[in-house]
Amino acid sequence: MKRTTPPHASVSTEWLAAHLAEPDLRVVDATWYVPWLHHDAREEFRQTHIPGAVFFDIDVVADKNTHLPHMLPGLEAFARSVGTLGIGEGDRIIVYGGLHLVASARVWWTFRAFGYDRVAVLDGGLPRWREEGRSLEAGDATPAPRRFAARTRPELAVNLDGVRRSLESRAAQVIDARPQGRFAGTEPEPRPGIRSGHIPGSVNLPHDRLFGPDGLLLPPEGLRRVFEAAGVDLDRPMITTCGTGVTAAVLAFGLYILGRGDAAVYDGSWTEWGGRDDTPVER
Q: Which of 28, 160, 166, 217 has the most neighbouring CB atoms within 10 Å?
């Protein structure tokens, strides 16, 4: 598989602090929590955020016609939502969130899935920014709406039928970002009604293994070792998955750094696959 050299996809806190005032730079807070933690990310944004940031809620900028959580919205809905956040064509977007790029990588991938590549993530996210004592502000963001154009890039998102076809043809590797216990079926799924186990033939790479003890993304050589140790062939097509398509995007981001910008995310992920009675499951 031919690799491509990716554009700069990750920026440091030092870089962002130095460029924060530039007029074409848009900072996006993508903080998100799994429901059972009972945290209010939007309220946390109101209390404190990086100066000039806007809040991107992956549960709001989502398909409202499905029971599955934060699935990709339609093209026009995405463009409208992004424009409402004050983001326009040509802007450089820096996305940040909490630990281990959750869910900044999901928002990064979402922009790419809608044809926009001028987007990067903040390595270390808000925790590192705060630890370094950098400036913060409070309150709601009130950006002036702008026009944002989006286009589909369907090869970056895979649905249930696409995963089924890949299993039959063995055309792509499936990499699961969930913790090892959930992958193996030794720990229950946190969402009710979801079976335990994993997609047959998939390999497990918990997303937090892509980071060092300082919470920063591993360098490329470290990322390569982690993917290869999990049994991933970096020369073959890949589909990433997780619980609901959030940490799957972390794996896709790591692969992008390694020159595999064609890795696809299974948007419905295990909540869809494990929530059905007509999909095979391994343990």
A: 28
